[in-house]
Amino acid sequence: MLPGGLSAAGELSAVAHPDESFPKENTVVWTPLFQAAWDRMNHDMGGKPVKIEPPNELMAKLDGFEWSAAEVMPPPERWRVWSGPPSPDFVEVANQEAAQILGEDKGPFDAIGEGDHPPGSRLVLALLDRDLNFPKTFVRSTSSQLAFRNAGGAEAKVEFFGVLGQMSASYSDSVRILHRDEASHAVQLSSDQQDAVVVYLPKEQESFAAAVAKLKGWREEGLKGAAGSALDPALHRGDDLRIPVVEFSQLTDFTPVLQGGRFYSERGVPMGLFKAQQTVDFQMSEKGAKARATAEVGAEPFGEVPRAPVRIVPRKFIFDRPFFVFMWKDAAPLPYMGVWVGGEKGLKVAK
Questions:
Q1: What are the residues facing 187 on neighbouring strands?
Q2: pTM metric for this prediction
Q3: DSSP code for 173
Q4: Which of 71, 144, 165, 181 has the fewest CB neighbours in a 10 Å radius?
């Protein structure tokens, strides 16, 4: 893995802030869970730092990020942030409570040694666990594969799910078309929760922030065409929807690019990060989408469809080149999980 949590092109990687650039050939994750942990750290230090020395652009972006976690994140029982001293007892308590959220025997956080950090140090742990099921299962391809062309132009045969032909009309209540033109398209797949899975194929690579801004507008406005038309906001008879199956586990250490003294007004000495780590497990298939993420940040003293029918226009929504996937609460301004699929990493390549 390269410095800053970014890996070599064609691999799994992550960004801490949605404005960050990334290798287009990678499969990349952004989730504001890391931001939630970062904000808690600042809160416990008495507020945002008054100075960062030497200046650090990424830390400044994280400090300046404005959002409401309550609006964006899943229900409180599906995510949580813990903050305390970096001690074995604190981590054990967090793991016990995290295990209850997960319904598992143990929590996900790394154990920590006694006395490893000086007095005044702080450790923030965060967990997100969300499972969205589609109300109607899509069709999983068993006899054919999708030719996925990655950002570098290479092609791979991958497993996919979706629906086409006459069957597409039966998914009109669960698939909403957010955007469609000759070069790109975006669809929203409803779930059994008050969340949705949004899949967006852009014309060319863009940042998570740019993608989110466009999708936010499309989700609010939506298409306004007649039923069966090219701008029908619902999936209709003759439409062709194909989405690759995605599944991966990814760990990123942001610590190398978050170095520098953070001077807080209530502290006489600057604070430096000893840990800034994120893990993400993500799956998307014909049944739904699942995301589990953890973030660990530690600091220590530094040193509605129209009724009138019209001619049916068959459409294609085929995600056969790099695309975004988001998990997004209804009416929320931001998603709580985002993935850019730029290459085969994370896709189910046919054997």
A1: 177, 199
A2: 0.92
A3: T
A4: 181
